[in-house]
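We now fix the convention by which a protein and its fold are recorded. The integers have meaning only within a learned vocabulary of local backbone shapes. The record below shows the convention in full.
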Amino acid sequence: MVGGDTLLIRPGERIPVDGVVLTGESSIDESMLTGESLPVAKQPGDSVIGATVNGTGLLRVEATAVGRDTVLAGIIRLVEQAQGSKAPVQRLADRISAVFVPVVIGLATLTLLGWLLTGHDLGHALIPAIAVLVIACPCALGLATPTAIMVGTGRGATQGILIKGGESLERIRALTAVALDKTGTVTEGKPRVTDVQPLADLPADAVLRLAAGVERASEHPLGQALVQEAQARGIGLPDTPAIFQSITGGGVRGTIEGRDVLVGSRRLLDEAGIDREGAGPALDGFETEGKTVLLVAVDGTLVGIIAVADTIKDGAADAVRALRVLGLEVVLVTGDNRRTAEAIAKQAGIARIIAEVHPEEKAAEVARLQASGQVVAMVGDGINDAPALARADVGIAMGTGTDVAMAAADITLVRGDLRSVPAALALSRATMRTIRQNLFWAFFYNVILIPLAMLGIITPILAAAAMALSSVSVIGNSLRLGRFGRAGQPPAGPAIRPASSSL
């Protein structure tokens, strides 16, 4: 396929390339690329983006960009560049071992020379020197990091937190800011009815019943939201409209039980000559909250307003509160409009908002946060979030999102629950704390016993037993991470002292 080719995009199909609509009208779900939660109406002359999903209309599209020239291919290149720019984190255990091993060999050599210079023969001098080498065998130091990481990542997996490796655990411990995508991360990613405001003699349920009765003949996501809300309220829907008309980008019109019902935008009602007087305050209030407003008119009279919005996920506000308690700044980064972003941020308790950001700009916004001295985690679920996930110090993908986002992330939240983010942070801190404990006790054990081995008080046999016990103690201490609780803290119960403290 090359630029200039014509494609026929059927309802529900994924658009394979970037292009321009030649004929047909439909609504396109562009949320995975733009962050806009509601479908975008398309008509001849409008551009479409590859990898987005066509709605209910049949479109004939002329390809304008294919292969490496598409928006999606550009995003993938950004992901690869961001991933390649990350420097691996140097393990603390490696740094200690790099110094420790030469020092121990030097101490063993000094021990051998010291015993020889004090008149002992080679056989007797070798015993304390060997004891020093055995006692200082860095098994405990070598096990300190991998055992804790293995248990920590395993415990995270049981809680739906998939961590790619130890470097991710190290980075998440140092976080100072968390950037959250909106659609599909903080919100459900699909529209729901939030308010039904009657404006005439009809009660709210009657307004919703008539509107949903017309919309049941439509496949538009907003219409389906009305139908689902009516069903959830136990409202019996009328028969399918005898006459039905869908106005792309405007709304729907149909005949229900002999009544002419119109559901749609302000423009649709204005074109139909229907008076909107008295609806102003309610309209302004809903739109200020970032909601999409559907006006309902029956037989030429405005009878009600239905507000539809992408609602926040259960637990999103709790997750934001927990992150703030942990001392992190929370930022909402979205491609959606500012008014909608502000409404969602207010519900979730997020103070800082970066709205109307294009996909390729999200990574730049993360870079700006990093340039200000922040250690940043990015949480997202869409293709449009992938460059930012890769650019962030820690990328966290929702398991309910796209494969591209999960591939770019360091951590995947299988359940798509935002409350897993503070849990992952707490798990990381607990794991790194365990690693430091392991390293401390392994080092402390050597500081106490090496001098005794140099003096000949500890024989090689006792040194081997002590060395084995130190390794067991480190493993035992790491296994304590298996008790890490679902709420981000170890379960209640008596604290277990590090086993190696007995040495």
About this structure: Residues 420-454 form the longest helix (35 residues). The chain has 18 helices and 20 strands.
